[in-house]
Amino acid sequence: MGLATTVELINKGFHVIMACRSTQRGEEALQKAKQQSNANRVELMKCDLGSLESIHTFADQFKQQYQTLDVLVNNAGVVSIKRETTAHGFESMIGVNHLGHFLLTNLLLEPLKNAKQGRIVVVSSGAHKVGKIHFEDPYLSKNFNVVKGYAQSKLANILFIRELATRLSTTSVTANCVHPGAVGTSLGVNRNTGFGKSVHALLRPFFQTPTQGADTAVYLATSPEVATISGEYFYKRKVAKISSKAKNKNLAEELWEWSEQEVDHS
User: Fold this and answer.
1) pLDDT tens per residue across span 114-135
2) Active-site entry in 150, 219, 233, 235
3) Which residue, of 37, 123, 182, 228, has the fewest CB within 10 Å?
4) Whole-number mean pLDDT of the chain?
5) DSSP letters spanning 146-206
6) Which neighbouring-strand residues pair with 41?
7) Kindly report the CA angle at 224 between 218 and 226, in degrees rounded to 5?
8) Which range is least confidently modeled, 7-16, 185-194, 200-209, 238-247?
9) Structure confidence at residue 235 (pLDDT)
10) How does DSSP assign the chain, residue by residue?
């Protein structure tokens, strides 16, 4: 879906920087983006959202090269069937899907504010509705299961965006999130073992294509219709309902403070 978003943004005249964890897969995606868009307004920079050092390095390199950032699309999504941790000991889903995006976004706020109208888009999920922030054990070291971990990270995405929108309310920068729907990507497929591929093959006819799944993210990134909308959750280009937990301002503030501590002290 990141590739589809890249191609659509290039076709709308944007110069796109693809932030990829793997240089090899990133190079493959870069070539596909050039082929599918017939344009060279795209480049690759390495950024591993599971590593705080990598995020800092990426942000520093970006700010050395560019003073403005029009759009930041936080598109990375990890699903771990078994409990995995990042280099800093974060459970991988909350670590990559939330904390990685939290740090990257905060480090890039200055160039976003320098843009005429900076926009932040975070890819969340309808899974947030069964999510809970487990402050007593946020990295699920005692009772891990994939649904619990993924739903927590997707709820965190929405709480983050809502609090971020409040903090950016006196600026021209907007922040929204999107539920892409069921999209046929490699999310949840183990890249080393291939585990999950047969399930994907079975379900693929019922999924949207990555381009269809990217549509609302691209809409939020580019459309003048949403230029002044911030702090919302979209599905199929419309504001959608969120869970009561996702609306909880105190919970959003608590998550923000916790997130700051986690990415600062590690």
Assistant:
1) 999 999 999 999 999 999 999 9
2) 150
3) 228
4) 89
5) HHHHHHHHHHHHHHHHHHHHHHTTTSS-EEEEE---SB-SSTT--TTT-TTHHHHHHHGGG
6) none
7) 70
8) 185-194
9) 93
10) -HHHHHHHHHHTT--EEEEES-HHHHHHHHHHHHHHHT---EEEEE--TT-HHHHHHHHHHHHHH-S--SEEEE------SS--B-TTS-BHIIIIIIIIHHHHHHHTHHHHHHSSS-EEEEE--GGGGG----TTSTT-SSS--HHHHHHHHHHHHHHHHHHHHHHTTTSS-EEEEE---SB-SSTT--TTT-TTHHHHHHHGGGSBPHHHHHHHHHHHHH-GGGTT--S-EEETTEE----TTTT-HHHHHHHHHHHHHHHHH-
219 is catalytic: no
What is the pLDDT averaged over residues 19-48?
Answer: 89
Global pTM value: 0.89
How open is the CA angle 174-175-179, to the nearest 5 degrees? Answer: 140
Question: Residue 23's pLDDT is what?
Answer: 86
Question: Which carries the bigger pLDDT value, residue 2 or residue 141?
Answer: 141
- Does 183 score more than 90 pLDDT? no
